[in-house]
Amino acid sequence: MRLWHDAHPGHRPVILKLELKDGFAADLGRGPADLDALLAGKLGDALYRPGRLAAGHPDLDTAARAVAPAIDSTRPTQAQARDRLALLAGHHASVVSADWYPLPQVLATVVPRG
Question: What is the pLDDT of residue 98?
Answer without folding.
Answer: 67
